[in-house]
Design a protein that fits this description.
Distance between the termini: 37 Å
Oligomer: single chain
Strand content: 35-45%
Mean pLDDT: 82
Largest sheet: 13 strands, mixed, barrel
Low-confidence stretches: 1-20, 35-81, 448-456
Structural class: mainly beta
Strand order of the largest sheet: 3-4-17-19-21-24-27-29-26-23-20-18-16
Helix content: under 10%
Radius of gyration: 24 Å
């Protein structure tokens, strides 16, 4: 094919794109610390986010002019599958990138090498906004989060990650790729470069690359915190695809787009497309008259430019350029879809909707630092699947009947519950399913492991905080968790923390099947026994490699009197 005869030049290196070039390009890039890639075709240029029909009547959003195409794709070589594809996108001018990591990914079957951008965000600005000093234990000023994204299918890829850390990655064998249950084998190429291989997956990969130099020094009573994290997302090629141009479609092509705050989306907008390589500064909210909306793509929606909304700020929903509750708010309408995009550094929650039948699929939530950066909440019959959530408050609020949560990876920071059942004075929800969950880390510290003001703190895998000082009412029943794996030991949080001491009603028939904890979680506490907490069951609850048959061997501080443990049906817990 003609593309194989084209030459890509970077500095003094020259490579022809064929199979042997993949190894040549990677080795040169590792030595030089640069990418040997250049676009093979003139890229289209975007100067505006545009509507498919001017009759929609929404303002056009001016953006910086940048290239929209940086994915380097080639026909498969002889004997290779014609479906082998690998894609990445260039970062737009104005998007924050990391100076700690570089990523290079090769797919020999398609003779493709890409150097996806490594985006980065730092903690200093947000921690200052919430009045935390540089030495704060829960919001220090010198931490970073970095991530890179690619899309591939049809054949394996080889990932090379280099670091600019002066001492490199550290000793051979010291780098871990989580989840460890995924068994990703890491090879040290040299002091600053590591390499591993990923197979195609319909569910994609959500991986954390960790080494000793990235960790913060653990303080007494504090867990080990990753000071400089790096996430790699590798999604299948059919995710976040372009829906095309049609009536009611609002498109944001590659480039930097300033939305001027939280953009209202009325009934004349049915689809928002955020292209790969697009960085949207601002958020979205469904406005009066909105019916069903889909937000889809491979780009980033970021709240970095908006000051963090402390206390009650952000709850007034005034449509005045400020944010109502969350970076993306789809409260109005029903049947909405959020697919493929990254939600980054929210000024409060990441995503909120109490609309019915909402679907969240293949989304990444990361870049937060303060409290109140909750993950997702949906209305009745909501679906959250194939998603990554890093939050510093409640990651998933199970507040609505009929919710389904599956194949989700969570990085819980120093505050909040992974699954929150109730915070306000009353909740009523039933028939909820949670399955195939990986919790990479939870950063709870000892200082929040006790009881305060007669109600539980909210630091737990499964939490019901209870009414805040008054007698609430709860009717929560029939929730099942299946195949949940907690990757790392935790200090301050419990597996379950439930407070029904002040409330009336009950939390009944909660079932936990095939749960794996790396260590006992002694702060698991149940307040309000007897009729308030009936019908709880634990089947194959594995703690430190051993199935436990009682609350005491599980390390729970207390439990309902009729809780049932069953170890007669052991099952290996797989990471999906």
């Amino acid at each position: 094919p003609s593309l194989h005869n084209q030459t890509v030049q970077k500095g003094e290196a020259r490579c022809h794109f064929n199979r042997s070039c993949v190894r040549c390009c990677m080795h040169w890039s590792i030595r030089s610390g640069q990418s040997c890639l250049e676009p093979l075709m003139p890229p289209p240029v975007s100067s505006r986010g545009r509507l498919s029909l001017l009759s929609l009547g929404l303002a056009l959003i001016p953006v910086m002019t940048v290239s929209t195409h940086t994915a380097v794709q080639h026909p498969a070589g002889a004997g290779a599958s014609t479906t082998a594809t690998l894609t990445a996108y260039q970062p737009p001018a104005g998007a924050p990138t990391s100076d700690l990591f570089r990523v290079l990914i090769a797919q020999p079957a398609s003779a493709t090498v890409v150097g996806p951008p490594v985006y980065g965000t730092t903690s200093e600005a947000r921690c200052t906004e919430v009045d935390q000093p540089p030495t704060s234990t829960w919001c220090p000023h010198d931490h970073t989060q970095s991530w890179a994204s690619v899309w591939f299918s049809g054949a394996p890829v080889t990932v090379t990650v280099t670091t600019t850390n002066p001492t490199g990655w550290g000793p051979v064998g010291s780098v871990i790729v989580r989840p460890q249950a995924a068994a990703v084998s890491v090879t040290h190429i040299n002091a600053t470069a590591i390499q591993f291989t990923l197979q195609p997956s319909d569910l994609g990969w959500k991986l954390s690359v960790e080494s000793p130099w990235q960790l913060a020094a653990a303080l007494p009573g504090q867990p080990t915190i990753v000071k400089h994290s790096l996430m790699l997302f590798a999604d299948p090629s059919n995710s976040g695809i372009d829906p095309g141009v049609g009536d009611g479609t609002l498109r944001f092509d590659a480039g930097f787009h300033n939305l001027g705050g939280q953009m209202p989306l009325g009934s004349n907008v049915t689809t928002v497309y955020v292209a790969g390589g697009a960085w949207l500064s601002g958020g979205f909210i469904t406005a009066a008259g909105s019916t069903t909306l889909e937000i889809v793509g491979r780009g980033v929606i970021s709240g970095t430019a908006t000051r963090f909304l402390k206390g009650p700020s952000g709850t007034t929903c005034a449509y005045n350029g400020s944010f109502c509750w969350s970076l993306v708010n789809l409260d109005i309408g029903e049947g909405h879809k959020l697919s493929g995009v990254v939600l980054h550094d929210p000024p409060k929650y990441y995503f909120r909707t109490y609309a019915a039948n909402v679907e969240i699929r293949g989304v990444k939530l990361l870049g937060c630092w303060p409290y109140n950066t909750d993950g997702v909440v949906t209305g009745p019959n909501g679906l959250v699947t194939d998603t990554f959530i890093r939050s510093n408050d409640d990651s998933i609020k199970l507040f609505s009947s009929g919710m389904r949560v599956s194949n989700v990876t969570v990085w819980q920071m120093t505050n909040g519950g992974v699954f929150q059942l109730g915070w306000w004075t009353s909740h009523s929800q039933t028939n909820i399913s949670v399955q195939d969950i990986t919790i990479l880390r939870a950063g709870w510290s000892d200082d929040k492991s006790t009881w305060s003001n007669t109600h539980a703190t909210n630091n737990a895998i499964v939490d019901l905080r209870g009414p805040d000082g008054d007698a609430g009412s709860y009717a929560i029943a029939d929730i099942a968790w299946s195949r949940v794996r907690v990757e790392t030991p935790t200090l301050g949080g419990g597996f379950i923390r439930v407070n029904m001491s002040l409330a009336s009603g009950s939390v009944s028939n909660l079932r936990f099947n095939d749960i794996e904890l790396q260590a006992p979680m002694a702060s698991s506490v149940f307040l309000g026994h007897g009729q308030k907490l009936p019908g709880w069951e634990f089947t194959n609850l594995v703690v430190n490699g051993v199935c436990v048959s009682s609350a005491s061997t599980a390390g729970f501080a207390s439990s309902p009197p009729d809780v049932h443990f069953d170890c007669s049906h052991p099952e290996t817990i797989h990471v999906r």
